[in-house]
Amino acid sequence: MREQFRGYVVVPAFNEEAGITAFVRELASAMSRLAAEHGGAFTILIVDDGSLDATGETVERLAREPQPPGVDLRLLSLARNFGHQAALVAGLVEASRDGDFAITMDADGEHPIEIVPRLVDCWLAGDSIVHTARRPNAALTAWKRATSAGYYRTMRTLSGLQIAPGMADFKLWDGDLLRQVRDFLPGCGSTRVFAAWLAPGGTVVPYDQRFARRESRFTSRKMWSLALGGLVRYSDVPLRLSMAVGLVSILFAAGLSAFVLWGSATGRTVPGWSSMMIALSIFSGLQSFSLGILGEYLLRNTFRAALPKFVLKRERNGAYSRSASDPARRGSAGSA
User: 250 and 286 in contact (C-beta within 8 Å)?
Assistant: First the structure.
């Protein structure tokens, strides 16, 4: 069991001025108790995603105040609003420099802080990634429940990933794992899907979602953008569909060509119709097939190249399968 750790809590925030003070104080108090229990230390890293209100200034003011024992509060400000996923990646990259692990959660209070000790316990037991999954809740709108269920079902079907319904960006990442994959994080598309790809058999901790007393800032447009990013990055079905359509089209063109030639031989066609139909059917099929080949090249040389070729497995004692003298094992390897 590892003790005396340095843990990060990465919290993207966009226009959270109204609730960020209460959230940070509650989180800092809980992390202080957890740090005292294990003899560790926590850094709460608020990533201000180009907020239009005073979110950044509020966090800076809080950071100047005395923090509970074992807790440090830091602010990382992005130049503009790059989006929730970009803010998560920026925080994870920063945490990978010297953190033993990083926990990602939202600033709106919907992720229950009381679940964090369970995530840390799983990490201490040897898990490299600890997932969480939101339990079904009738308080969510029918639209939200339907679209969420459809997204996870589609992702599992098209990608083959073991992604649980309701799996959120609320999760724990081991620090050594982050140092292995941090160069791939900016192009991962979706951190929650990337985590499922990295640790398909990882522990999943269920939780009951808190409901913020305001309208969610995770709009339908952002939800669809996240869904498409995950599907395109981790499923080869859309790319290979063109090849399948092309093959079917070529077979259809061959049958149609035979029919056209028969019609032309028996005088059932007008002049020029036969050659036009044969050319259209064959070249349309070849065009779709060529797009499929292009998609296969994109899949192998672009999308798959943006994912790590391998990731070392973390043993149950918390160590990775490399010698202690390997510089990649030491925290200095994660420094920029």
Answer: yes
Beta-bridge partners for 290:
none
Whole-structure pTM value: 0.74
pLDDT < 70: residue spans in the chain: 1-3, 211-235, 238-239, 296-336
CATH number of 6-235: 3.90.550.10
State both tokens at 106: 């939202």
Domain spans in the chain, listed from the N-terminal domain onward: 6-235, 237-305
Q: Which two tokens stand for residue 239?
A: 């790319």
CB neighbour burial string for 17-46, b if at least 16 within 10 angstroms, e if fewer: bebbeebbeebbebbbebbeebebbbbbbb
Q: With beta carbons less than 8 A apart as the criterion, state whether 102 and 201 touch.
A: no
Interval 88-145: pLDDT, tens = 999 999 999 999 999 999 998 889 999 999 999 999 999 999 999 988 877 777 777 7
Nearest to 145 by CA among 133, 132, 136, 153: 136
Distance CA 317, CA 313 (A): 11
